[in-house]
């Protein structure tokens, strides 16, 4: 299988002819043909990868000061595929970097070559994660979606971006990755923002006639081209495999899942006694035992869709819905994001539907009837998750490159919003206990979004001594109106004299309300 992969790369002109050991000199002029791109990012470390057309050492100079790149990380081994790990970094810090083979042999540097380290695991803050599904087809749509995401970001950079599979059409071969993925995103996304991928069926179609073998061996370009946090170094429980893994971005825990490959050369994701599901359970248990925050799971094959694929008919989709997602719901996963079907679909907050589309009952399976647009329109309050942590929103966002048709029963009954006329990518934006997802279309419009909040609408009793002040803080992120005074801030300082005073704060749409009963003791 490896001989076939190398042969395919050579045909495409991406590998040099055989080079003897006598020719392997560090001073051979090398040119950059892939990257740089950022992998395995955490609050204190990152991996930088790139490819050259000649053997060269791997050297990265870096620093928060663009003009003085005093930091050095290197690998002296001569290679075409360069992979350098930088450790000892400071959280949430911007670093500029240059790559090359050493002094006087810089391949790339400049003001656009930078990364920002992630926040510490569990830290609350404001975070932004891009979501690209089925992107790698070298289409006009792919470039348009890319450009609109960059335009949307403007001066609001992403913390990271994730891939939902089918990252290089049609067969996931290395030349396809080069042409349809790395070349498309190299100048604007790959060298700035850490990437956490998941595989799709087309990524496993490397040399199509060997698809079944590739599913078992994982001997495909996808696993050669990407580095993943397999040791738990970015948060979560170590998976020991590139196929599935987890990581943290502040108080958001992500699980990247493989819905197509085989584990131990036998089991699949929907075989719930297999290695992947057993790891998922351990990972989610560990997260809930030690942290509080959001949980997002992503993979390729969606449990609900009536776009270019049919979740009532296709084996992977049916079995994932019937066997697997109930486990994630049991562990309180907040958001599930998939690709495969080339459109956008989004459910309400739902729970407990594992059958065919015809068995979906909104009254039974939707935990909220709201649109969650949270814009003042009718019935648009946010989805709210309390301490019971029940309910999941399902999103299909598989049109960052590929476009497709729709099924006869489109839209799926479980979906609040569906759209297949234009492609797009999604943006997950988290601010403490508020999560919002936006779907950014190829024409720049945001055609859908929703807001979900956790642990809001609180009722508290606070006791202070006479003459003391108390600080009251709203449980939600947004706009505030307090019942006493004209304050519009999230926190206010009060110094009541009465034995009991009630303070209330609401949002502009009367969706959210906190109540504080302040008691003054003698």
Note down, in words, how this protein is organized.
- One of its GO terms (molecular function) is acid phosphatase activity.
- This is Metallophosphoesterase.
- It holds the Pfam family Pur_ac_phosph_N.
- Keywords: Signal.
- Residues 128-343 form the Calcineurin-like phosphoesterase domain.
- The chain is α/β, with parallel strands linked by helices.
- It has three domains: 23-116, Immunoglobulin-like (Sandwich), CATH 2.60.40.10; 128-454, Metallo-dependent phosphatases (Purple Acid Phosphatase, chain A, domain 2); 459-521, Sandwich (Immunoglobulin-like), CATH 2.60.40.
- Helix content is 16%, strand content 31%.
- The chain has helices spanning 2-11, 140-153, 174-185, 211-217, 221-225, 275-290, 315-330, 362-365; strands at 32-39, 46-63, 71-86, 94-100, 106-108, 114-116, 126-132, 160-163, 195-196, 245-249, 252-256, 294-299, 335-338, 344-347, 383-385, 393-397, 415-419, 424-431, 434-441, 446-454, 459-465, 470-473, 481-482, 491-494, 500-506, 513-521.
- Strands 9-8-7-18-19-20-15 form a seven-stranded mixed beta sheet, with helices on one face. A seven-stranded mixed beta sheet has the order 10-11-12-13-16-14-17, covered by helices on one side.
- β1 (32-39) and β2 form a beta hairpin.
- The chain is globular, with a radius of gyration of 25 Å.
- The protein starts with a helix and ends with a strand.
